[in-house]
Amino acid sequence: MAVASIAGTRPLLTATLHHEARTFAPWIVLPTALSVSSVLVYPWLFPDLVERRAFAATVGANPALGLIFGPAYDLSTVDGFNAWRSLALGGFIAALGAIFIVVKASRGQEDSGQAELLASGVLGRSARLLTALVMAVLCSLAIGVVAAVATGLCGGAWGSSMLLGAGFTVTGWMFAAVAVVSAQVGADARAATTISVSLLGVLFVLRGFLYSVSAPTWTTWANPLGWVQETRPATGDHWWPLTLGVALAVVLAGVGFALQVSRDFGQGLVPSRPGPPRGRNRTPMDLAVRLNRAPIASWSVAFIGLGVVFGYFTRSVKGLLEANPAMAGVFASGAASPADLISAFVTTILSLVGIIASVAGVQIVNRVRTEELEDRAEAVLATSVARVRYIATNVAVALLATAAFLLIAGVVVGIFASTADIGITFGDALLQALATIPATWTVIAFAVAVIGARPVARPAIWLGVLVSFVMTILGPSFKLPGWALGFSPFHHVPDVVAAGANWWGLLWIGMVTIGFLAIGFAGFRRRDIP
Length: 530
What we know:
By secondary structure, the chain is mostly helical.
């Protein structure tokens, strides 16, 4: 890289850190809180060996947890529990943060016009991209250091805590480099983010899936997230796999800088297609569908893939449970049957699909605010389109799209389940997917309330997704009481196969959904635009 191409990097980095460093805080806090909370509560929740063995059996009874957290090498110690619960998920959060930082500071500035203003000064062509990469590297490093030190101070073993933090850092570095490449390929910042996050999601799901079905060992080494998993904090403390991640980050970053030379300013290597000479959208609904057509298509393909992965997993779950020594004892005692656990597994899987679908729905709702800030919504509202109609059409697209995503995954899972002798029919899986839709709508309705009534609190739109994930996936491992788990709408989704399924929960979350929507519509009708 020529020195002239990075001229001005130091003052740009200093100024950018001055304005953007505070945005690192959530990405640092979340993995740190995940690790620290695991160390603090484990001795309280599982004070003796009997409790710890019972917990290990519980984890073995729900293979869906392996999809999220990966292999549980040792749940009998504080550090083993922390490594299982924090390594994969904390690394995922660090990777997300790195992606958003790189794309915002590179392609995001081009889309907003800031890059053109900066380029009018003494600034090399690669200075902005290098600044974006250095910011992500520093944020990832801060995540690892803060999480490791805080975990060690709270009682974790220093060796395993440091390795855990290093895993967070290297995961962030790898996907910061991925974002450097996608920022050159995507037509705009949104496309670049979609490419990077999609790759992260695919690798994350494959890592958990291949582990859960006991795939050959080589599949672990074919996935960069598997390299971090193989460090095995507290049960092996292998540092050397992290060198593979560092090497991959260096190579991908080099590729990204090389690709930057080949693209035009403000354009990606895959350019966006020009629109028609004259507009074809005649109604607000047409416009809402047009704006979200590409992400809806992308998410549809993703949910077909999720359905295939989870469906294949559902077919083999009975064998996985019966092969678990702890569960074999449970079945022999009559305390539970494979059918009970399989139906609970399907409920958990489709709740996880619902949480992922809510991410897509919140993105569509968030587009309403984006259109405002980019001064496009005002032109639409200057016509005869009423405010309530404008936001209602966007909300309708979000609700219908997420329902379709869940049904797509439910159909695919049902096809797999119906071809295996596991006691779950196609109709059972499809009905479970239908029962999950209201919970997903509640999360989306919360985002509507924030965007409609308090758009200055825009980051809070993701609070519903976060609470749902924490309470649904993490809450049971912390033995949280029912009233706490009830903050997640997915806690109220019935197991449709179970005898005496309680459907009243759907009524209550339906009422909450209507309340959130009313708040959002009323707020949007009365507030200023933007």
